[in-house]
Amino acid sequence: MSQSIAVIKGDGIGPEIMDATLRVLDALDCGFTYDIVDAGLGALEAHGTLVPRSSLEAIEKHGLALKGPLTTPIGKGFSSINVQLRRHFDLYANVRPAVSFPGTRSRYDNIDMITVRENTEGAYMSDGQEMVDDGNTGISQIKVTRKGSERIVRYAFELARQNGRRKVTALHKANIIKTASGLFLDVAREVASDYPDIEFEEMIVDNACMQLVMDPYQFDVVVTTNLFGDITSDLCAGLVGGLGLAPGANIGENAAIFEAVHGSAPDIAGKKIANPCALLLAAAQMLDHLGMNDKGTAIREGIRDVLEKRRDMVTPDMGGSGTTDTFAEALVEYATARA
Prior knowledge:
This protein is of the alpha/beta class. The chain is built from eleven helices and twelve strands. The longest helix has 17 residues, at about 145-160.
């Protein structure tokens, strides 16, 4: 049965890594058809808006999108494209695994953890932001709701249970931000009581950042609010070699968008040296989401195999002498041999 997905190739290196990723998906015989839609700088030039209505309608129609990195122009009048997409489709769960791969420039081995970040409220809401006092004072609200907290914490526990994870750690700043962060912590404690089979831990976010650097192995699934999740998930990416290995899933009730979380890297666009791993790993998350776990596993195992055995095919940022295309070629060969 064919599955249609919306594909946003993205800006900068986006089209290069997306083409590489689609080659691998096709080699795995996933049965996908691709609806290529616009967003980002290309959409702004062609349609006068960063996210055309037709693109939103395509994502809504398919309920699924694979997205390359997008550039939001710097300056007033442009809101984050990613935040806009998450709020429009109520993609409340941002799921970012951090997993060690061989041959990477990282300080740790055998890291395997997941950050589950609330994606639609908290410090990133545009509501309540204003400049006052003749532009000398900026005001921004942090809004956390019981509903938002309950569903993200429950998502984290369900994810842990489904994947045989042992512990969920809630990160907070309730000692200082007693209302917004305090509400999140209270709800996390309530939800945790429904999962006696999974260990629950709570940790102040600044201490958690220190602990992640000193002993990341104590963490398994981390759940937290929007801003803290943004910061700590990037920290976790640093534990395994950087954002080039950092995929992200944005999950809602009726839609899901899977993405490489790094930027569009315009300085290397067109040079065919961009590392496609983050988007490939996001595609693996998408396959898991669709129940095609064996194919998602094939991508992850293929990346591991290429990094170990095909260094000449690996991109320079990973210590290889290859290109975006040769990395994809090596994975296609792996998928073909595995079939």
